[in-house]
Amino acid sequence: MVKSNTIDYLYTVKFDKLFYNLYLCNSLEIIYMIIETNRVVSMHYTLKDEEGNVLDTSANREPLAYIQGIGNLIPGLETQLEGKQKGDKVAAEVEAKDAYGDVREELFHIVPKSGFQGDEELVAGIQVQLDTEQGPMIATVAKIDGEDVTLDLNHPLAGKKLFFDVEIMDVREADQSELDHGHVHGPDGHHH
Ligand SMILES: [Zn+2]
Asked: Where do the structural domains in the chain lie, given as residue ranges?
C-alpha cells in the first residue's frame, strides 16, 4: 500500500443511499511506497557504538540495498524501518539481542601459540584467520597468557548495543528473481 504525506479529508456527500467519501490532495504531493516485506530498500547509514565511535558507514559509498523482511538486515533495525518511506531519517537504537546477539562463552577457545603462522605479531585485539573443518573463519585474539592464546569466535559486534542513523533513499518492489535469490540485483546490489 502507499501512503501520502498529505491527504485532506474534504467532505462526505449523501447521494441517494450511498455515501461517497471524497478526498482531495491539497497539492500534488508525491506518493511514496512505504517499507514492507519483499520491498527493496536503498539507504545510507552510519553505525556507531555506545561510545559514539563510528563502526561502519555508507557515506562516500553507494547506498546499501536490501530486501525487507527476509533476514537481510539485523531484526532490530528491520523492525524500526518498517513503514518508513523515501526521505525519512531514522535514528535507531538496537539492543544486542536484536542485533548480533549476546557474547557466548562457548565461542572462546584456548589454543597453543605454536599453532600460529604468519608475520604479524600475535597481540590481543588482532584478528586472525582460522582454517577449520567448516572452512576459513575469522577470530579475534582475546588474550595471550604464555603459550595459551584465547580466541574469540563471536561476531565482532556481539554483545554490543548499536546506534544507526539511517536515511531512506528509495523503496521499490523486489522482482521475482531477487526474491528467489534473497538479495538485491542492479546498481546497488548483486551483478550476475
Ligand atoms: Zn541474485
From this structure: 2-100+158-181, 105-152
To the question of domain 105-152 being in CATH 1.10.3720.10, the answer is no
Report CA(124)–ligand 1 centroid distance (Å).
38
Output the CA 72–ligand 1 centroid distance in Å. 13
User: pTM of the entire structure?
Assistant: 0.72
Question: With contact defined as beta carbons under 8 Å apart, do 53 and 121 qualify?
Answer: no
Which residue type does 64 have? L
Per the listing, cell 443511499 goes with 17
| Number of Cα atoms under 13 Å in the Cβ half of residue 3 | 8
Q: Tell me the CA–centroid distance for residue 56 and ligand 1, in Å.
A: 24
Output 178 or 29, whichever has higher pLDDT: 178
Neighbours of 126 (CB within 10 A): 11
pLDDT > 70 in the chain, percent? 84
Q: At 49, list the grid cell.
A: 557504538
